[in-house]
């Protein structure tokens, strides 16, 4: 074969099928593009009967012909194939190995049978090449062949209406009109002699075949005529598949794209000697081809650039018009499939289309899911942002949440509409439900946060409104303390609850929840008071001592007391202790319910200074009302200081205030002592009587009097300057020593002052003025020149103040 591309040995002499050669051939002649517009022609006949010569002349092919000078021998082995040149439609021709060749002998009958069957199964037109002189002959070379053809046709095939074109070679002078009836008679005889299945006993030959006859002159002897006749015959192959054409009646044509597969499968079945059911074969071919095409289309779409870009884009975010884009990509792929499979069995191609469609949808489904995922998360984010803004702008929570939920769910639905893929019936309900759940959860969490914010705000307001006033009220503990606290609690709670209730209205909560929250706030207010009371009870000892100190050390005008000796320290102490006891009784329990209790009575009975002298010795008391850890009629929850703690607290209080009282008594004694410097009255009387003469002398002599007066002044000045009473306060010896060291500098200083003052106009000396000295004392200025007893009291008070660390008491 000169042209490898356009002709090939399809089946070799041993029955091997040239699959790759056929694939290349199909590609080279672009057979697959022909759809159903192609025809297949085969030639059968005795060996060396000029078949190849005829085909080459008829179709301008280049099948190998026998060299006429070498004698008759087998040239064509197996089956050869070539494309007919310049014939429309595309026509493929097959040259079969001759049937009665000497080389193969009887054993080759099987191959002859198989190749005949193959030619009949594949071809639309079968040329039966025969010698003219064989017509009407009993032992004609092609009789067995025809018999075989008819047998296998009957047994294996459904009618295909193959055209059997008998080509009579080396025609004689006998006209064809006379030969043809004889030939048809021969054919009919063979047809009749073939055993038929029940179904086809009455079926005429014409049902299976179109029989046509043509006669050609001898190629060797009348070449010119031969060529003319062949040229005329060639014309019949143009438009052979059109109605009325040579193969116009053909049935069950396989699409050109499946020709290779079909031929291979038919040959396989024939070789295996299995039943060759053409309709089933057609379905099989259609199945295989449709599947191949579907796979090709699937691979094609997987690698499609547009699809890959879309898939990549949807990975990163929302793609507007996703549904339309994806639908068009899928549509392109499916319509490509439809175009290619149009000539295959409808049932098969539809089934394979469905498979392809579902495979494609499976491929693109993750992209759709991803699209909906982005849509869901974006909608949720947008919803959160919009809700926050709406709440910031003061919109009511419930209304804002409801409106925004509706708005964003409908936005999501719009997005889903945009993502709808025409070919798929994907349901976005699951993702929609998830979005709804997410939105609901967000609304719930924002609601909880806002409510807790609101609660915290009102709780903060309540704490502020209650804590400090309660502290102040407890600090000024009196009979009205707890009623005042109750009034305060009621007022503040009422105002907070009304504010809270109106704020809660925006949340449209159910009545039960609202009531619960209001009750919680009310409870909180109570807790604030209770915890503040507990805190204050922890400082009861300090408060008691403060109160004691205030009442004890200051008079009714809040002025510091001067323990001059006239004060009734016992009465003052008693009053101060009673006030402290009162404070303790107020702080002993929480009294928010207006329940009466006898704490104060019990405490005053047990702890107050008993005026009855018979009861002063408490150690012999038979019953101690404070020997208990709870108060009567007061629940432990409301107890701030238990009776036992009260007792211990009182003991500590008394111990810590004892010193102040002692100091006050000592100060009073010292003051009394200091103010009592005059000699006894009898001594004064003796001085007056005995010193009368001296006194008179002095009065009579003013000079003496002046000297005495100056001496008095100097003495008084030295007395004050040297602070003689002060120096002797610590004993006589330290006083003498101190005075001895101070005496000379003081005298010098005094003289200097006198000299200075002698040069200046006279001015009053503030420190000599007792009123001014007292004033400077009250202002806390310690003046060393004053030496009265009040300094002792002040210092004792200071000591009491400095002992504050001892006052920390925790019951
Ligand atoms: N008498 C006669 N001989 C012919 C005719 N055509 C071809 N031949 C000769 O027959 C011989 C065989 O020709 P091929 O064309 O090779 O025959 P074939 O049938 O293809 O042979 P195989 O392929 O071997 O079966 C050649 O020598 C041809 O010259 C014809 O019309 N009449």
Automatic annotation (TrEMBL):
Q: What is its main location?
A: endoplasmic reticulum
Which biological process terms from the Gene Ontology are attached to this UniProt entry?
endoplasmic reticulum membrane fusion
Residues reported to bind GTP: 45-52
Q: Its GO CC terms?
A: endoplasmic reticulum membrane
Q: Which residues lie on this side of the membrane: Lumenal?
A: 700-702
One Pfam family from the record: RHD3_GTPase
Q: What is its EC number?
A: 3.6.5.-
Alphabetized UniProt keyword annotations? Coiled coil, Endoplasmic reticulum, GTP-binding, Hydrolase, Membrane, Nucleotide-binding, Transmembrane, Transmembrane helix
Q: Which family does it belong to?
A: Belongs to the TRAFAC class dynamin-like GTPase superfamily. GB1/RHD3 GTPase family. RHD3 subfamily.
Name under which the protein is recorded: Protein ROOT HAIR DEFECTIVE 3 homolog
The organism named in the record is Dioscorea cayennensis subsp. rotundata (White Guinea yam)
